[in-house]
Amino acid sequence: MSLPLKKLGLVIVSALLFYSCSKKDNIGLKLQPGDNEAGVFVTDTFTIATTAVLKNDSIATYNQSYVYTGAYADPEFGNVSATAYTQLLLKDENRSVSGFTSVDSVVFFAGYDYHYGDTSQFQTVNIYKLTADLDKTTTYFSTNAAISTDPTMIDTDVQFKAKPSTENFKLAINNTFGTDVLNAIGPGTTNALFLNTFKGIAIVPKNNNEGAILRLKLFSNATRIVIYFKDASSNPATYELIASTSGARFSRIISDRTSIPVLSTLVNSGDESNAMGKAYLQSGLGIRTKIKFPGLENLKANSTNVAINKAELIIEVEPSTTDPYTQIGLLELLKLDNTGNVRKYLDTDGSYKDVVVQKEGFDVNGTAFPQDVTFNSSNSTYTFDLSGYIHALLYDVDANNGLMLVPHPIVSSTSVNRVLAGSGTKKVRLKIYYTTIN
Question: Which of 132, 269, 278, 344 has the most CB atoms within 10 Å of its CB?
């Protein structure tokens, strides 16, 4: 190590204090040889190598308070579609409906609190009965295989437009379904018995390239199947099926990337593709980007020591007023090991967790203060402060194995938002202010 970490930190502070009194136009200008002063530089010309990666472990989407359904066509990420699977339970287990005279209509009502895609297009989702059981104790992932269904849809083919706000939609279900449900409800019918006959439903997009994906609020009063019927006295009555926390549910989210050259090879978990300086991220589907800084050590090539005044990784996104594909709200950087995989540490709870780049000012090799970065909509960037991290690389306090740019775990399974950075006139760049000390 050329200069101890603590000592170099003092040098950095001293250099900053000295140059804070200098004119701004001195920053980045190399002082002439023979001047017994440190040289202050700024550079953002480092080569940034990026690789698109499909997440090694799938994203869990089971037993959440919501499910996804719908589809959209993305010119940069391909066609994305989501199918919702959920068990349905009797709202009133002990209520008898024996002797009903007729079913007038059946309606599926759904509330949603999120959409992603083109809300100007009509789209269609259809409902099918499951022919295989869902299991509350099973861990289902976004890449899980489709659950088998009866090939005959139980709803009417209704088109609708997703609205860009919290809304509801409804689908008409055929009366035969309602009749079958009411006939299955007898004295002592519990939800466990009901699930033996009605295993659940799948809410499936008709096409994989139109409209938007919706996040349905399963436990909202707005989400239910209502059977309108005449009771034994021919009086109007209703019966409801609902989703419940005691029932199993999950979302299957898939993408057809065959028409997107950079992403078409991302098929199996762990697949990689040269992203050519761009950064691709997609929550819900596990697309992330490796970022490497080859040649970073050349920063010290002509100097005994280098003090990092500030280093920023700037992820620039091409702004658009018409793009319906809004950015991911929160990102992190994970450290890689020498095999190219995400580095892990053993937590106090006995589990292995990802090593996240820490907030500036905290232990660069710590784990308690992850640096989470939000999207800056005013300049369409994400900016990470890597001052301590870059310093640690230069003085072998940390290994220059590269980083993985990822959606924060909070948003990785709660949205299907995406990011394309470094496209058009924008770049993924590392900007460093540094002082040479000879």
Answer: 278
Instruction: Please report which helix (H) or strand (E) contains residue 107, including its range.
Output: strand 102-117
Confidence class for position 438, pLDDT limits 50, 70, 90: low
> Would you kindly state where each structural domain of the chain is located, as residue ranges?
5-56+269-437, 66-256
What is the pLDDT at residue 165? 67
Contact (CB, 8 A) for 396 and 2? no
3-state secondary structure of 296: helix
Report d(CA 287, CA 421) in Å as an integer. Answer: 13
Residue with tokens 């339970």: 89
Pairing of strands 236-242, 167-173: unpaired
Helix axes 5-19, 387-394, angle to 10 degrees: 130
101 vs 413, more confident: 101
Identity (one letter) of the amino acid at 129? Answer: K
Which residue would you say has higher pLDDT here, 275 or 296? Answer: 275
Per-residue 3-state assignment (H helix, E strand, C coil) for 137-168: CCCCECCCCCCCECCCCCECCCCECCCCCCEE
What is the enclosing helix (H) or strand (E) of 433?
Answer: strand 428-437
Q: Give the per-residue pLDDT at 16.
A: 38
DSSP string, 382-395: EEEE-HHHHHHHHT
Q: What was the pLDDT predicted at 10?
A: 37
* Band (287; pLDDT cuts 50, 70, 90): very high
What is the rounded average pLDDT of the residues 246-264?
A: 95
Three-class SS string for 324-371?
CCCCCCEEEEEEECCCCCECEEECCCCCEEECECECCCCCCCCCCCEC
Residue 290 CB coordination number (10 Å): 21
- Residue 131, SS3? coil
Residues in the chain, how many? 438
Helix (H, G, I), strand (E, B) or coil at 15: helix
| 25-29, 186-190, 263-267, 328-332: least confident range | 25-29
Predicted structure pTM score: 0.86
Count of beta carbons in the 10 Å neighbourhood of residue 356: 25
Task: Say if residue 319's pLDDT is above 80.
Answer: no
The rounded distance, in Å, linking the Cα atoms of 54 and 289 is 9
Distances (CA, A) of 391 to 111, 189, 309, 310, 316: 50, 67, 9, 9, 23
Contacts with 33 (C-beta within 8 Å, 6 or more apart), sequence order: none
If we measure between CA atoms, which residue out of 326, 319, 312, 332 comes closest to residue 428? 312
